[in-house]
Write a structure and sequence with these properties.
This protein is mainly alpha-helical. The protein is built from nine helices and no strands. It has helices at residues 5-9, 15-40, 46-60, 68-76, 90-109, 113-135, 141-145, 148-165, 172-185. This is DUF416 domain-containing protein.
Length: 196
């Protein structure tokens, strides 16, 4: 799995920073899940969006109450199984689900660091897998590190990290800004465009 110094740096974050970081990466993976649901006629592609919105709400609204147990239960039924679909899109959709599941688990366990690293890995995995699939071969970590799409994904993760790292305390304007910027971009980590 592609390691990155960002994973060590995340250790310094407080839990709200971890949760915001994960929400940002899930926001960028959401179109992959939504597009798969559309393409495969699977489930409700907007369930992901609704659960992610609840997580953003807990970051922005003081004392927002969300039953993460029931959200996780609902979501676990909405995760596709790779073996049941022949379309490639099932793989980035599953990575997106891994991301959101990790985020939900972090809200239940209170341990955010390991989950933040797992979400970072799920997102980079989608990009690396697509690059290898398009190239028709496995690539070494060295090759992947120099791959433009993989580099771009790390750059975006670092950018989110840097913005959060610059905060002394929970910055609601920054959190809202990240949410609206990523939502308006509507482009996933592998270039899928979300269109309502």
């Amino acid at each position: 799995m592609l390691r990155n110094p960002i994973h060590l740096r995340l250790e310094r974050f407080e839990s709200w920073q971890h949760v915001t970081f994960m929400a940002c990466l899930c926001e960028r993976m959401f179109p992959n899940y939504w597009a798969f649901c559309q393409q495969a006629g699977f489930g409700d592609g907007m369930l992901y969006r609704r659960i992610l919105d609840l997580i953003w709400e807990t970051l922005i609204v003081k004392d927002a109450k969300v039953n993460f147990d029931s959200q996780l239960e609902k979501f676990e039924d909405a995760i596709p199984l790779a073996g049941e679909y022949s379309v490639y899109g099932v793989y980035p959709a599953i990575d997106a689900c891994v991301g959101l599941s990790e985020l939900l688990h972090s809200r239940l366990s209170g341990d955010t660091l390991s989950h933040a690293i797992a979400v970072s890995e799920a997102s980079i995995n989608s990009v690396a897998m697509l690059e290898m699939t398009q190239a028709g071969r496995e690539m070494t970590d060295e090759e992947l590190k120099e791959n433009p799409a993989v580099e771009e994904e790390w750059d975006i993760q670092w950018e989110v990290f840097r913005l959060l790292n610059a905060c002394e305390e929970r910055d609601l304007e920054l959190i809202k800004g990240l949410r609206s910027d990523l939502r308006e971009a509507s482009i996933s980590n592998i270039g899928i465009n979300f269109q309502q």
